Amino acid sequence: MDVAIIDYYANHGKSFLHKAKAFWKIIFAALIIASIIITNEFYLLLGIYIALVTIATWTKLSVTKILTIAAYPAIFALIFAIASWNGSWLRAGVIMLKALSAALTMVILIVTTPYPDVFNAIRPAVPKIIAEGLFVTYRSVFILLELTDDLIKGLKVRGGITRRKYISNVKNFSSGIGLLIVRGFDYSEKFYGVMNVRGYGGKISSGKTQNGIGRNDVIALIIGILIFAVSLGTVIEKSLLEFSIYALVCSVIALVISSIYVQFNS
Amino acid sequence: MSHLHIPDGVLPGWIILAGWIFTALILAFSLYRVRSTELKRKIPLIGIISALMIVCMTIPIIPPVYHINLSVIAGIILGPALAFISIFIVDLIIAMFGHGGITVVGLNTVVVGAEAFIGFYLFQLFMALMGRDSIMWSSGLAAVISLILSTSLLIGVVYLSQINPELVIAVEEDHSTEDTQEHNIQEIPKELVKGINIKSFAKTILILLGVGWIIEGIITAFVIKYVSRVRPDLILSEET
Q: Are B45 and A129 in contact (CB under 8 A)?
């Protein structure tokens, strides 16, 4: 998980998806995930995945990096695919594509939306302690990442992690994690003290939620609705599945055109 | 990777929904249980332990997927109720990275939350049985056993997901006049168990995760030993 890179992408991107509001992008992601879940046809799922890669090119970020981040669940999906193996590569492909497409959707959402905006949008739907916990966790991740980086460097430089000394490595690494817990606890006490001084009463201010719908929100929403409509159509009317190969071809054409366009405009 | 993050789209809707309902109920119970504690004081601690779990997931022990979870450590330090809240936060955030499905956050929280819950009570039990000097063994054993049980829970979830409840209900209705309901519950027809080969699935993950249990158990033991020396109040604090 490249937490720091994801955060950088979300805060420094300039695409239309970066400009769209978090609430509408969550709806966009929900529509695409719903379409992935209801679809069981290989070519249509491949079409959705390629459409998502196309959307990833529109973010003007490193598509390779986005695809790498979103490829993580492939390993878990592979276990499910092996366990479901019935001699059909298409069935295994469906399981893999479902996991990869859903992950890519979430990664597109998160590389184009700063975390606080996502948490703010879901705040009304979760208990207060979870909403506050999400903000504090997000803030703490970056502090701990820095501490962890220093810790691992320190362990390596001082011979705490060396080749072939597995027991000693595990012991030193574990002590490092223990140190992080202790330092993290001290940090949480300080954090609470500072927040109390600033008038913390159990609610972290996260800025105002932007209301209304703009041009970028409408574009994101239309893409989501379009993908969902195609999937829903094939679920309601099975005969439409014959045309799923056309959906795949359309996605490939869109990807080629988008890649060329982005290449020439970057 | 001492447990398996269920990805999106591999399990049927009814079990995903059941996972969310179950998680919501446990969260509600956890919040009820911690109602007397000063929550605004606990939020930074929940945040730091959740962040630590996320950070540890970024460190591959055996690349590319083996990482430690610290779920049992979270259970021992925070107590089962706050640990469950913390694990829900972690699962929600990592699902946004595509690390585990977003629709199955409920199920993943139940599975990982079980590690923290069982780990906490086993740790308390072993400490009571073997004494405070055995903190390393108590925590290590608690971690390994809770991971074995949470993996069994995962296999159970996958097994249950292969049964179509609508078909089961239909079969039970067909035979209701023959007074064979007990028979139906015991013997689910083979045609209703479809999709994932549960034996193959169980074998695969038991082989893969077995290594993870041992690694996580050893690391948990050393971490708890270290923390108990430096800050014993963190390990043996009030139960929440």
A: no
The backbone torsions φ and ψ at residue B193, rounded to the nearest 5 degrees and listed phi first, read -95, 100
- Structure-block tokens of residue B100: 């585990």
pLDDT in tens, A135-185: 889 888 888 888 888 888 888 888 777 777 778 888 888 888 899 888 888
Residue of B nearest to A180 (CA): B52
pTM over 0.90? The answer is: no
Any A CB within 8 A of B208 CB: yes
Task: Tell me whether B44 touches chain A (CB under 8 Å).
Answer: yes
Q: Which residue of B has its CA nearest to A6?
A: B97
The DSSP letter of residue B33 is H
Residues of A within 8 A of B43 (CB-CB) are 129, 132-133, 136, 192, 202
Distances A230 to A41, A143, A177, B8 between C-alpha atoms, Å: 12, 44, 48, 19
Provide the pLDDT for residue A159: 77
* CATH number, domain containing residue B23: 1.10.1760.20
CA distance to partner chain B, nearest, from residue A70 (Å): 6
pLDDT band of B192, cuts 50, 70, 90? very low
Separation CA A25–CA B240 (nearest Å): 37
- The least confident of A228-232, A248-252, B95-99, B119-123 is B95-99
C-alpha separations of B18 from A76, A113, A200, B24, B32 in Å: 21, 30, 36, 10, 21
Query: % helix / strand / coil in chain B, to the nearest 5?
Result: 75, 0, 25
Is residue B45 scored above 80 in pLDDT?
yes
Count of structural domains within chain B? 1
- Residue B66: closest CA among chain A residues belongs to which residue? A75
Task: Give A125→chain B minimum CA distance, Å.
Answer: 12
Sorting pLDDT into bands at 50, 70 and 90, what band is B221? very high
- Output the pLDDT for position B237: 60
For residue B7, is it within any domain? no
Distance CA A227, CA A35 (A): 7
Owning domain of residue B196:
13-235
Residue pointed to by tokens 């168990």:
B193
Identify whether B182 is part of a domain: yes
> Domain-by-domain residue ranges, chain A?
3-119+212-265, 127-197
Strand partners, B66: B62
Q: Which residues, in sequence order, are CB contacts of A185 under 8 Å at separation 6+?
A: B45, B48, B231, B234
Contact B50 A201 (CB under 8 A): no
Higher confidence at residue B86 or residue B192?
Answer: B86
